[in-house]
Specification:
With 681 residues, the chain is α/β, with parallel strands linked by helices. The chain folds into five domains: 90 residues; 152 residues, von Willebrand factor, type A domain (Rossmann fold), CATH 3.40.50.410; 99 residues, Immunoglobulins (Immunoglobulin-like, Sandwich); 209 residues, Rossmann fold (3-Layer(aba) Sandwich); 94 residues, Immunoglobulins (Immunoglobulin-like, Sandwich), CATH 2.60.40. It has 14 helices and 36 strands. The strands form eight sheets. A nine-stranded mixed sheet has the order 16-15-17-18-25-24-23-20-21, sandwiched between helices. Strands 4-3-2-5-6-35 form a six-stranded mixed sheet, sandwiched between helices. A five-stranded mixed sheet has the order 8-14-13-10-11, with no helix packed on it. Strand 17, helix 6 and strand 18 form a beta-alpha-beta unit. Helix 1 packs antiparallel against helix 2, helix 5 crosses helix 10 and helix 9 packs across helix 10. The longest helix has 25 residues. It starts with 5 loop residues before the first helix and ends with a helix.
Length: 681
């Protein structure tokens, strides 16, 4: 296809013809008419001029290049720390046969936390495995290249990035998985998680929830130890099955303010095959601040006295008990009991508290408009009859955190008498949970007795019922104290106070407080104005204090996410980050612990089930590494390596062609030679 419009050809023809005729008209006339030599010379001159004029229109044509290409066979090798050296050597021997596969181009890659072209280990983090990164890499190549199949040698241990099960299928490309490692459960006890509030109050006991998992340790005695500050606590656990899991609760009472380290250690016998996952640690911040609690009631009720006594015994709360006529009391946590909510002023007051980020714990009574109050605070629900109240017992939601109940307290709770509660259905908002369910005549139901949720800056709880004073009276009568009831009330108020705490004017934001020495750790420093809006105009400083008391400044860099600093590369130990404004008035501190505990060491059991699942999803296949010699046969069965005809088109401009320019020069040269031959110069 020539890229010259018709008008270009016409113009070029006319210009070349006029120039040729004008040049030869006089000579032809003097020679007595048109003769063959003159005509031949004029034609050469015409073609030369026409070729030159055509170049002004930038002529081109489409050149199509075709060739045959073999499809690509992508081969990924797990280079992470969890794959043993012996497995990698065995795979390298099997890989030689894969490279000899006919009809495909083998592209080898190394994979761990990222993917690199084979052999280039530089920049590859081998202490983590990101299986989703491999699937994304293969999908990217398959989107613009003919991929016959994917061969992947890995142990299936994924400890970084997304779950590979949620990655899209490779679009018809078969995935052949070669399973390394040992998929059989090893003898192992591990600390899975430490759960507690990031902040605690001085002298106020709080709960630390520890999740422990065991494999093939049935009947063995395990000691779960918690070191909190200078105190050591422990519990004994004997797993009842080969695959067992249990959550342990410890009550910790901070005695000094500042950073309190928490360290959990699982001590077993020598049969444990992986000791790297037997411990975890974290920090919490202990503050010396007495929170104000306002007990506001619509009418005198024994529940008020029970709540007030429980809060005052702890010593960490300033408690005020007033009637609703004095509802303008300022406090950090508001406990509302029996407000009828008949006036707009009362409803508006509660709405203002919610909007301003106050913490509310509401108790309903039979004389109260329950759902009028629920509507104000953003909790929906319905009831069969507003007057359908009956006696129910409390039943803890076992699927959620126990809010600090230990085994002893749980036993006392089971003996609590019933309270008076409505039969209702409640719509739990996002971020909420049912803390207590109703129990009828010994049968657990899914009807809520108490719910808790976060709403923007507020922390809210609703107890649907009255009569909790019976709980405290009976527990004290049976045991001599009301330890379980009092602890529940104080922990609930402490949770509300902590969760609803207002944002500081300057704050350090981290993804956690424990990191591995190999983790990429980014610390953000956020400043806010009085209205709580982000303020980038404030000058801020960040420093890092190590365990020896040596402090050094950290450079903050402006990014799209705000002001942040990369504090990666820290050695093992405890550190304190301190952020402050230029004036030094506003300060925030965060404690972090850096451990030398790669993710690859925490779980060393190969996950061949995951590999089989991925292979099945792509109509591929699976082989254990011991059978890697049969990989060639599997490739022949699952992969169809058809040669692909490739074509590439290119616009070629005439002025780029040396042959075209040579033709123009020859035309002018021949024309000049004819003129000389005829005696004309």
């Amino acid at each position: 296809m020539l890229g010259v419009p018709v008008i270009g050809w016409v113009i070029s023809f006319l210009i070349a013809a006029v120039l040729a005729v004008l040049q030869y008209y006089k000579w032809v006339k003097e020679s007595g008419g048109v003769k063959s030599p003159w005509l031949l010379a004029m034609l050469f001159r015409f073609f030369a001029w026409m070729a030159l004029v055509l170049l002004l229109f930038n002529p081109w044509w489409i050149h199509v290049k075709q060739w045959v290409q073999d499809p690509v066979l992508l081969v990924y090798t797990d280079a992470s720390m969890s794959v043993s050296k012996s497995d990698q050597k065995q795979w390298l021997l099997a890989l030689k046969k894969v490279r000899d596969t006919k009809g495909v181009r083998v592209e080898p890659y190394l994979a761990a936390d990222a993917v690199v072209l084979g052999g280039q280990l530089q920049g590859l983090d081998t202490f983590h495995t990101n299986m989703s990164a491999v699937l994304q890499h293969a999908s990217g190549i398959a989107s613009n290249t003919a991929v016959a199949g994917v061969v992947w040698m890995t142990d299936g241990i994924n400890n970084s990035g997304r779950n590979p099960q949620f990655e899209p299928v490779l679009g018809g490309v078969p995935l052949l998985m070669v399973g390394a490692g040992n998929p059989n459960p090893q003898v192992d006890a591990s600390v899975e998680a430490i759960q507690c509030n990031e902040e605690a109050f001085l002298g106020n006991s709080f709960s630390v929830e520890i999740s422990v998992k065991s494999q093939r340790m049935k009947g063995q005695s395990l000691r779960i130890q918690l070191k909190a500050g200078g105190e050591l606590m422990s519990q004994i656990w004997t797993p009842s099955s080969d695959q067992d899991w249990r959550r342990f609760s410890f009550n910790v009472q901070p005695k000094t303010k500042g950073a309190m380290p928490l360290e959990v250690i699982v001590v077993g016998d020598r049969s444990d095959q992986n000791l790297a996952n037997n411990s975890k640690s974290k920090f919490i911040k202990v503050v010396d601040e007495r929170k104000k609690v306002a007990l506001l009631y619509g009418a005198p009720h024994p529940d008020i006295a029970a709540l007030k006594t429980a809060l005052e015994l702890g010593g960490q709360y300033l408690v005020t008990s007033v009637s609703k006529s004095q509802f303008n009391t300022e406090a950090d946590v508001y406990v509302l009991h029996g407000w009828t909510m008949q006036s707009k002023a009362e409803l508006q007051q509660v709405a203002d508290w919610v909007a301003s980020g106050k913490a509310l714990w509401l108790f309903t009574t039979e004389s109260q408009n329950v759902f009028g109050l629920s509507k104000v605070i953003g909790l929906g629900g319905e009831t069969n009859s507003p007057r359908n109240w009956q006696e129910v017992q409390a039943h803890w939601n076992e699927n959620e955190l126990n809010w600090g109940l230990d085994e002893k307290e749980s036993m006392r709770w089971k003996g609590y008498p019933p309270v008076y509660s409505p039969v209702l259905k409640t719509a739990i908002p996002p971020g909420g949970e049912t803390v207590l369910f109703q129990r009828w005549s010994g049968v657990n139901t899914q009807l809520p007795l108490m719910v808790y949720w976060k709403k923007e800056a507020s922390a809210l709880a609703m107890f649907y019922g009255e009569g909790i004073w019976r709980w405290r009276i009976q527990e004290k009568a049976q045991h001599g104290d009301a330890m379980a009831f009092d602890a529940w009330v104080r922990r609930m108020v402490g949770q509300l106070a902590t969760a609803s705490a207002q944002k500081k004017s300057i704050e350090i934001v981290l993804s956690g407080n424990q990191f591995d020495v190999r983790d990429r750790v980014i610390a953000k420093v956020v400043c806010r104005d009085r209205g709580g809006m982000l303020d980038d105009r404030v000058e801020r400083r960040l420093s890092l204090l190590n365990a020896k008391g040596v402090s050094r400044p950290i450079n903050l860099v402006k990014s799209t996410q705000g002001w942040e600093a990369n504090i990666s590369g820290l050695t093992q130990g405890n550190y304190q980050l301190r952020a402050e404004t230029s004036a030094g008035k506003d300060v925030d501190e965060k404690q972090i612990v850096v451990v030398d505990q790669p993710s690859e060491t925490l779980n060393t059991q190969a996950n061949h089930a995951l590999l089989k699942q991925l292979a099945t999803q792509t109509d591929g296949g699976f082989l254990p590494l011991e059978q890697a010699d049969s990989l060639s046969q599997l490739i022949a069965q699952k992969i169809v390596a058809k040669p692909i005809l490739k074509a590439q088109s290119q616009n070629v401009h005439w002025w780029e062609l040396w042959g075209w320019m040579l033709t123009i020069a020859l035309c002018f040269g021949v024309e000049w030679w004819i003129r000389r031959y005829l005696g004309k110069y």
